Amino acid sequence: MIKKFIDKLLGKSAPSTAGGKPHFGKREEVPAVVHGINPELVDRRAADVVATLKQAGYEAYIVGGAVRDLLLGLRPKDFDVATNATPEQVKALFRRAFIIGKRFRIVHVVHGRGREHEVIEVSTFRAYLDNSAAGQVNGNEKTSKAQLAGMHHAVDASGRVLRDNVWGPQDEDATRRDFTVNAMYYDPVSQIVVDYHKGIQDAKKKTLRMIGDPATRYREDPVRIIRAVRFAAKLSPLGFSIDPKSAAPLVQSQALLAEVPQSRMFDEMLKLLQTGHAIATIEQLRKLGMARGIYPLLDVAVERADSPFVKAALLDTDRRVNEGKPVAPSFLLACVLWEDVRTGWQERLAQRQHPLPALQEAIDEVFDRRIGDVSGRGKLAADMREIWVMQPRFEKRVGNTPFGMVIQPRFRAGFDFMRLRADVGEVEEALAEWWQDFQSADDERRDDLMDQAREEQRARQKAQQPVAKRVPRAAAAPAPRPATAPTPTAGARVDAAPADGEDMELPPDGSAPKKRRRRRRKPTGGAGGAGGTGGGTGAAPASAGE
């Protein structure tokens, strides 16, 4: 008991696994002539960090996925360094270095400033401890903060590691890493690769193999389940696949993800979709039987990945990442959830609600139902809302609206969103082309585009106006002329309309009868014949002497 206690304090205790004592592996140093890593692919700043630590008397290596990519002839996007120096010792060697993290304490060494800055993550070799001997807490990171404050090695009731800050030798550090291809160490100074678990052989066989018992390793850190999918998606174009023994417990272990903090799950979901392999990730999730159940928002993305709009967004994200362009999580999530927003908005418009309040209400409903409290009320949600609210405004191309739109900070994201909508036929292609021209045009060209928009608006309004059709008056059918009808003579009275039972006289050519104005009856009596209401024919005499 005393020996175990002392070993635990010194970080020398070894866990019991499915096969008993873990196999820490045999150190194998592979020279450059064998591994064939091209030194030109190594980041200069990462090499400088290693050199600085070695000059101070410490061991230091580039480690993890960067070594794997170098072996495959790829240029790594991120470089991590592992050393036997403690975080405090590392921090003391660099002017701009910051210790971060609670679960794993690491050091960020910052090079450069502004957009050109680069962060090299430096971690200390960790001991592979027996989790059964670790301190145990009943809750999680949030509910057991006070209890975890003074602990270096702690697990929860399910065996998930909550604290792992006990330093140890390099061989134990290699054993506590996940896959063999991620557990190699490269020294850019001597150009040797240190390999404990046949990682170079697995890289040649294109196999992702978990170190130790896979089910136990997934239970220690369930996020390894997501990492397995991510690595398989990233390396699948090169022919990599997950070892069958490592893949077998994935689906069964998926329930363990419910215990992982939602903020961490949200970040891991974004890594799946925004590391340049989103389409391949969707394929891997379906292939492994994990299309549902990892994270609610990811479920929606997988479900809609085959729809034209979401698929276009995923392909566009992969393209931008592979071209070295920045991507924003707000844009991709706005694309994934646009179907919900649009449906809710159309339902409210059908109820005769005002367009803008209806859209805002639909957005609020989607935030409550799909995002919740993870990041739904922060900058992420604000950016998503702005992208969505901008969409109906793209239809307004007259007045001051276009000039106000192009100076908004999120205009480019809103335009790219509308551009994708045009690509899948949701809005007119001409609309996207107009805005493409307008945002980069000079004042004279913008005036021409505004005139064009006004003409198009007038044409649409004219086309939408109802056309009143004239109904031609039907011609009266010619009535047979009575044989006894007298021919009117000059001065004879002709009424404007026939009396009941009489026929209207028709012209000789059979055309429609002409209307005749009935003359007003002249008054009789009074001076000069003016005034009075006496009777008379009402017809003017044919001549003064008649």
Which helices and strands appear, and what pairs or packs with what?
Elements: H1 2-10, E1 28-30, H2 32-35, H3 44-55, E2 60-63, H4 65-71, E3 80-83, H5 87-93, E4 97-100, E5 106-111, E6 118-124, E7 135-136, H6 145-148, E8 153-155, E9 161-164, H7 170-175, E10 184-187, E11 192-195, H8 199-205, E12 207-208, H9 214-220, H10 223-235, E13 241-242, H11 244-247, H12 250-253, H13 262-273, H14 278-287, H15 296-303, H16 308-322, H17 329-350, H18 355-371, H19 379-393, H20 401-406, H21 411-423, H22 429-440, H23 443-464
Parallel strand pairs: 3-6, 7-8, 12-13
Antiparallel strand pairs: 1-11, 2-3, 2-10, 4-5, 5-6, 8-9, 10-11
Helix pairs in contact: 10-13, 10-14, 17-18, 17-19, 18-19, 19-21, 21-22
Structure description:
The protein is an alpha+beta fold. It has 23 helices and 13 strands. The strands form three sheets. The protein has an eight-stranded mixed beta sheet with strand order 1-11-10-2-3-6-5-4. Helix 10 runs parallel beside helix 13.
Terminal Cα span: 153 Å
Helical residue percent? 40-55%
Strands side by side in the biggest sheet = 1-11-10-2-3-6-5-4
Helical stretch tally: 23
- Poorly predicted sequence stretches spanning 5 or more consecutive residues: 1-20, 484-506, 524-546
Largest sheet: 8 strands, mixed
Number of strands: 13
Nearest-integer average pLDDT = 81
Q: Helices and strands: which structural class?
A: alpha+beta
- Beta-strand level of the residues, as a percent range? 5-15%
What spatial form do the alpha-carbon principal axes imply?
A: elongated
Q: Gyration radius, to the nearest Å? A: 42 Å
